[in-house]
Design brief:
eleven-stranded mixed beta sheet, binds threonylcarbamoyladenylate, Rossmann fold, 31% helix, 11 helices, binds magnesium ion, alpha/beta, DHBP synthase
């Protein structure tokens, strides 16, 4: 199958791209679409066969459930049963963070096919703020199941060309909406009511909506979520090894620990490219990618993260050495992806 790429740059192009994407989605096809986090591989979430094709194209195991995207609260209400004890908190979080990179795990209605949730009674839902994505879902009038548009276990694509590298000849259409503005996948949470006034917010996957941002609204609990653990493997995310380049990757906590093997070549993933951090001069690197040159800004590092990993993977080095990233703000999400890439 030949893969067409349609640019959504100018208003005219966008109109054409939206029309084409909606036509294909209505016909049960799957289409790669831009979101603010990473590119998604989208299908009509009510169409079980189309959703099955997502798993097939991604080579994704059937036990790993998909994220469903909605166009707003009304569409959300049509696919989930919101437990009364968390309704208020959910409303506040939606008000604050939607549209945006925050995904909620909620009890699903029967209208969502089991294949979407891998048989779970809950579904992960978010509303993207990408204008092209928003137009497409509005126009379609149906929820879109969309995991990241990469082969399972590989790096998430943050540009149309990265989607092309991952999935060309497997899907009919890629909508090119430019580079993703956040660069790492959405934050996933499960809300739990408590006896006191503060609800628990279980952080199932760190992302652009940070722990610091969520703290205002409840007690943020990291680590294994006991409920989803009981339900089955997949608290989001997540299989240990994931987001990985083909080239082996190692996080080097201390530059002094580096010993090059003479026959091997190495590439460096640097946080801010500063001499004083000690990584630049320990080796004659085959390739260096700097996530946020200068003082180091975590949101900028997140935007460049998967792009830089791809560049290093393509450099032909035998191993990628990564500097550690500060584990605060969106740095927690980058570090999470980096650790899974290293396994
Ligand atoms: O930013 C994002 O969330 C991107 C864009 C495309 O929206 N999507 C994305 O989807 O990252 P994906 O499929 O790569 O990751 C979805 C994660 C999986 O790791 C899965 O385990 C988890 O969400 N998940 C989905 N449904 C779940 C559920 N009912 N309970 C717990 N985890 C769930
Ligand atoms: Mg993914």
């Amino acid at each position: 199958m030949e893969t067409e790429t349609l640019s959504a740059g100018t208003p005219e192009e966008t109109k054409e791209a939206v029309r084409e994407a909606v036509k294909l989605l209505n016909n049960g096809s799957i289409v790669a679409l831009p979101t603010e986090t990473v590119y998604g591989l989208a299908a009509n979430a009510f169409n079980a066969e189309a959703c099955a094709a997502i798993f097939e194209v991604k080579e994704r195991p059937s036990f790993d459930p998909l994220i469903v995207h909605v166009s707003g609260k009304k569409m959300l209400d049509s696919i989930v049963d919101i437990p009364p004890d968390i309704e208020k908190t959910l409303e506040i979080l939606i008000q604050e963070f939607w549209p945006g990179p925050l995904t909620f795990v909620l009890p699903k209605k029967n209208i969502i096919p089991d294949i979407v949730t891998s048989g779970l009674k809950t579904v992960a839902v978010r509303r993207s703020n990408n204008p092209v994505f928003s137009e497409i879902i509005q126009e379609l009038g149906m929820p879109l199941a969309a995991p990241s548009a990469n082969i399972f276990g590989s790096m998430s694509p943050t540009s149309a060309s990265a989607v092309h590298t991952e999935l060309s000849n497997r899907i009919p259409l890629i909508i090119d909406g430019g580079a993703c503005s956040d660069g790492v996948e959405s934050t996933i949470v499960r809300i739990e009511s408590t006896q006191n006034s503060k609800p628990n917010i279980h952080l199932l996957r760190p992302g652009p909506v940070t722990v610091e941002m969520l703290r205002k609204f409840g007690k943020v609990l990291k680590g294994q979520d006991s409920q989803s653990k009981n339900e089955r493997p997949n608290s989001p995310g997540q299989l240990a090894s994931h987001y990985a380049p083909r080239t082996p990757l190692r996080i080097l906590e201390c530059p002094g620990d580096f010993k090059a093997e003479p026959s091997k070549s190495y590439a460096l993933l640097s946080y801010r490219g500063q001499e004083k951090d000690g990584y630049l001069r320990i080796h004659d690197w085959k390739e260096i990618q700097i996530l946020s040159p200068g003082s180091g800004k975590l949101p900028e590092a997140a935007v460049r993260f998967f792009f830089s990993l791809r560049k290093l993977d393509e450099s032909g080095a035998d191993e990628i050495i990564a500097e550690p990233i500060p584990g605060k703000g969106v740095g927690l999400a980058i570090l999470d992806r980096l650790q899974r890439a290293a396994l």
